[in-house]
Amino acid sequence: DVLFQQRLFKTARLYPGALDGVWGPLTDRAAGAFAMAGEDLACRFGRFDARSERQIATLQIAAQRSARVFLARTRATGLDARVISATRSYGEQNHLFRRGRYGRPGPKVTNARGGQSNHNFAIAWDIGLFEGGAYLTGTAAYERAARAGLIDELEWGGTWRTFRDTPHYQLANGLSIPATRALFEAGEPYF
Question: Looking at the whole model, is its pTM more than 0.90?
Fold first, then answer.
């Protein structure tokens, strides 16, 4: 989605053009600058498994830095933590929202619809913890990961009261979701 990319680049102060949904030279330059900034962070803070790298690359630059610091600190304790989900479109978020609802199989995985999650604004990610290649589901390991990796600029979903989400981390931008969404959609910085 070109418009999404332009919003992402504009909020990162890399795209000076209009939010018109047309991929042109300005969008192309912003994409290059965004990729170079991400590469610089990977060199400075470490590289991880391929899936984590793909997911981290979708995040805002500030969130990429925080995710890398978090993963490095968590892995230093011996936990095999990986970023398994990061930026989502509104459509992807709505698909997840429908899981476990409206007669669809599976457990509910989110209470947020499209445009109601910081995943939609490239400042949130979910981790998976693995042991011997097997995905861990218990909360104790996720609490251990939070103790090891949590840094000042992050909020952890494990502290939420209404929908405790122990794999979830996001930049603490001090704004409500509606305020963040309005700034993102206008191409204005929100972190």
Answer: yes
